Write a sequence for this structure.
């Protein structure tokens, strides 16, 4: 097993509607498992991975409309994630940072502190070089701004821009991802500014946090794909009242102190993806038979399949599969009365290319069959 598994990526998430999902049951939670992610567009919210004693990890869902948190359990209806990244039991990779050597921490930017702790560990030879580092910390805050996904996929505008431009799409794409999410403020006292757009939550200033530091954030694997955006951190208040994405770079966020900081060198990365395929295409006695398979590693929802006769797309048949689990398939039989002569039948999975697949994996989305009827 790789040190880090990524199901889709932050880049995939912010491009548009995501139809690929990883079920909760596929995530191992034995031991110290680091991770973060986003829940479905049905319930919205962020995922935070918290240690539950020494032998177990729990996933908490942070709710968009009020910043509260709910512990997830298999079968509760929230267990399919369009974006999630996670480790196995990373206990052996845990490297405590020497907080004393970092100097006075109060008010300093959190990302800079994590970066300094990584550099310090490498200088001392206690921390291996890695493309991505896992991060766990417990922090006290003077003030903290968090965000929670309130519209999971930001519409289709970002994906549409790859094909055509629109005034709405350009406007939305120009916004920072975090400008578009629900913001909440935690502080000892509410703001005196009655026009403050950030909703005040409460006085829970002690937070347990988990996330990742990517040395190449432009790739958009576990952080927003922007230069300098290395740290992506989710967390929950230790009284288990609130949770969300830590907007640690927000001008209102001010650190009081760190209680602990652990760094984990994650040297190997595995990426999960969907892979749709058409198989077993046959035409016999007026019936077309074919199988639609998901041979990838992500469940897929709302899969469209087009059946096209003689390249006449304007008169194609269309079926839709609500859910197709990784490793499973569905068989179809379609009555098809073809006139006498030569014909080409094409069956195409995901003809609109809504499912995220790399280009070389799309070749098996289509199968053609030449038939002669007499």
């Amino acid at each position: 097993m790789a040190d880090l598994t990524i199901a889709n990526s932050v880049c995939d998430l912010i491009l548009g509607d995501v139809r690929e999902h990883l079920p909760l049951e596929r995530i191992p939670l034995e031991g110290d498992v680091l991770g973060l992610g986003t829940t479905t567009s049905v319930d919205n919210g962020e995922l935070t991975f918290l240690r539950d004693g020494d032998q177990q990890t729990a996933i908490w869902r942070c709710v968009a409309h009020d910043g509260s948190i709910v512990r997830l359990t298999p079968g509760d209806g929230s267990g399919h994630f369009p974006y999630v990244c996670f480790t196995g039991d990373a206990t052996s990779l845990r490297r405590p940072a020497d907080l004393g050597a970092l100097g006075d921490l109060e008010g300093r930017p959190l990302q800079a502190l994590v970066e300094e702790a990584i550099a310090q560990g490498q200088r001392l030879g206690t921390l291996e070089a890695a493309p991505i580092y896992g991060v766990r910390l417990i922090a006290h805050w003077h003030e903290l701004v968090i965000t929670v996904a309130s519209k999971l996929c930001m519409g289709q505008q970002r994906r549409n821009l790859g094909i055509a431009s629109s005034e709405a799409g350009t406007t939305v794409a120009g916004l920072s991802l975090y400008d578009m999410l629900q913001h909440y403020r935690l502080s000892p006292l509410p703001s005196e500014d009655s026009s403050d757009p950030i909703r005040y939550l409460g006085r829970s200033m002690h937070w347990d946090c988990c996330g990742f530091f990517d040395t190449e954030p432009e790739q958009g694997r576990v952080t927003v794909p922007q230069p300098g955006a290395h740290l992506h951190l989710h967390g929950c208040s230790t009284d288990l009242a609130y949770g969300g994405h830590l907007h640690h770079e927000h001008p209102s966020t001010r650190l009081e102190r760190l209680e602990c900081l652990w760094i984990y060198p994650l040297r190997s990365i595995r990426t999960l993806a969907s892979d749709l395929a058409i198989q077993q295409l046959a035409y016999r006695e007026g019936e077309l038979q074919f199988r639609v398979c998901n041979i990838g590693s992500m469940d897929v929802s709302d899969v469209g399949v087009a059946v096209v006769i003689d390249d006449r797309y304007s008169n194609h048949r269309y079926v839709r599969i609500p859910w197709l689990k990784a490793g499973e398939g569905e068989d179809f039989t379609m009555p098809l009365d073809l006139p006498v002569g030569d014909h080409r039948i094409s069956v195409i999975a995901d003809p609109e290319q809504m499912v995220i697949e790399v280009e070389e994996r799309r070749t098996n989305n289509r199968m053609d069959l030449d038939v002669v009827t007499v």
Observations:
- The longest strand covers residues 132-148.
- Confidence is low (pLDDT under 50) at residues 168-175.
- The CA atoms of residues 117 and 183 lie 28 Å apart.
- The domain at 273-373 is CATH 2.60.40.10 (Immunoglobulin-like).
